[in-house]
Amino acid sequence: MRNLDALFTPRAVAILGASNDETKYGNWISVQALRMSRPVYLVNRRGEPVLGQPTYRTMAEIQKPVDCVVITVPANGFEAAVDDALAAGATAIVGITSGFAELGEEGRATQIAVADKIRAAGAVLLGPNCLGVLDATSDLFLVSNPLPHGPIGLVSQSGNMALELSKFLADRGLGFSRFASLGNQADLGAADLIRAYAHHPGTEVIAAYCEDFQDGRDFVAAAGEAVAAGKPVVLLTVGSSTASNRAARSHTGALTSDSAVIDAACRAAGVDRVRSPREMADLVAALHRHGSRPARRVAVIADGGGHASTASDIADANGLYVNEFRNSLQAALKDDLPPSAGVANPVDLAGAGEQDITSFARTIDRVLADPDIDSVLVTGYFGGYGDYGPELAAREIATATVIAEHVHRHGKPLALHTMCSDSIAADELRRNGIGVFRVVDDAARTLGMLADHADRRPHTRPLPPPADPVTGNGYWDARELLKAGGLSFPAARLTTDVVEAANEIGYPVVLKAMGLLHKSDAGGVAIGLSNEDKLRAAHKDMVTRLDVTEYCVEAMADTTDGVELIVGVRRDPRFGPVLMVGLGGVFAEILKDVTFALAPVTPAEAETMLRALKAAPLLHGARGRRPVDLAATAHAVAAIAEVAAAHPEIAELEVNPLLATPGGCLGLDARIVQR
């Protein structure tokens, strides 16, 4: 963990490039910095007063200790400004200046050189091409815009995304404990900041917007440490579309990873991934209110049948269980509500709001008290009854207070959707820490995200020590490598005399031509050869068509009740070896029924991946078939992942098919692609 005290709690700071020009960052950041109680030195090469304050032409003129320097000068003066700051003893530099890696290779080279110089001096660099840094707990405001204060630590590679999130959080009564704009991550990366936030007492929840994870394994490790320390990590990233990848490269010079790989990394670290700044604000606020409490089993309460049914469908679509209430709960609700009310779940108050607004609070109290209920989704008109007159308005506001008391007493999440979200009663709920939503989809999705969060368990594993490199990349090389790693294959011979090999193994056999990447597509595989004549005929045909001299003769596996899987590991440039498991055979690329995880994995984790496949019923014995040996299959998958993870020289390692049967698991084909 790097020491970032000079960045977040400096004794004194300097703004290099301070300006009176209200169109420049040097002005905006100076305005914010002058709010601080610590010494602030404004540096301007002309030496003219800035914002009514005296300035210095260089850092050397200050002649007092300065821990942190914010540099806002143009790119052609950035390196000289860094030299000036380091010579004056600064140990943290915030690079607002743009014009480096985001412009191409020349800019990247300059960026690397400057970052190397800063690290060699024992200092840290945030940015360049960033918005600044803030620590509300230490009275540090080195950003271009005023930001709301609160318990959320934000790491963002985009300045504008941070500004938008700040507005969403302010609407929810929240703000930032710390904010660091990553920019191009020439030195400090997301992992460094997440580690610092995990140990920061003022931060309760960590939010991160990242386009480039750099060392993805370090990001996963840092996020996993934060989650284990009780600081949830919520991630917004890009990569699900070609356009977003293109935009990220032009924005920060980032190299994004495939969205499925990022999902796998999030599962490993226990990170919650969201799709938009608004969704991030909703989840961050919910985690701040409720932490890791369960939310899966939800009670839906509405004051109309349409809202009740619609909300139930939306809740189900977000992974929530709208289970029927136990008989005793239904009876209690029925005794209290009008005869036409629905009480089975969803609850339809059936006009009780107009007649007795307090029925909302009593119903919520009853369902929250039930041990079969994890959370509550309220939907409809609550908050709008005050429009019917001052007396009902007063009762509605009082009921809102009582609802909040019930929620806090039971300690279970409640999300309230109302078509009157700007009402006084709705504001009363917000003031008392209740999530109020203008759209029922957002309310249900937030509870669904809370439920997913509560189910997550970080399970990161370190990479194994590198093994001796593999030199060959043919089928036989892959087969022998995997056999040594614990994967079983049918008996086989690598030979030029296919008949002799078959006689040793025993018929039926499979004949495979060596030296072909996709043997099946090229007609280089013949199966079920039951005697010598059939073997000779298949061999002659391959010799004629493929010009291959070396063959693998392999015992024909018993495929009765077997399921063909594909297991592959490819090396992502950011996250390293990534395991893929799916339905295999010749149609694997068409069906695309796959799951992903960071390699290596335990057999238990491999079994979870297998159970997550859409084709999982085939493994359990669908349509009268015998179930496969799932434990043996999971051990085989874990063995493949372990082998690939131990060989950094391998770009791709694939077993297709991996035959799972009631009696065990066999690899039937494999290939290696070297880096």
Description of the structure:
- About 2% of the residues have low confidence.
- Helix 10 packs across helix 17, helix 15 packs parallel to helix 16 and helix 19 packs antiparallel against helix 20.
- The chain has 24 helices and 28 strands.
- It has a 7-stranded mixed beta sheet, with helices on both faces. Strands 3-2-1-4-5-6 form a 6-stranded parallel beta sheet, sandwiched between helices. Strands 23, 24, 25, 26, 27 and 28 form a 6-stranded antiparallel beta sheet that branches.
- It has 5 domains: 132 residues, NAD(P)-binding Rossmann-like Domain (Rossmann fold), CATH 3.40.50.720; 144 residues, Succinyl-CoA synthetase domains (Rossmann fold, 3-Layer(aba) Sandwich), CATH 3.40.50.261; 164 residues, 3-Layer(aba) Sandwich (Rossmann fold), CATH 3.40.50.261; 65 residues, ATP-grasp fold, A domain (Dna Ligase, domain 1), CATH 3.30.1490; 112 residues, D-amino Acid Aminotransferase, Chain A, domain 1 (2-Layer Sandwich), CATH 3.30.470.
- It is of the alpha/beta class and 675 residues long.
- The radius of gyration is 31 Å and the shape is flat.
- Keywords: ATP-binding, Ligase, Nucleotide-binding.
- This is Acetate--CoA ligase family protein.
Nutshell version of this structure?
With 675 residues, this protein is of the alpha/beta class. It is built from 24 helices and 28 strands.
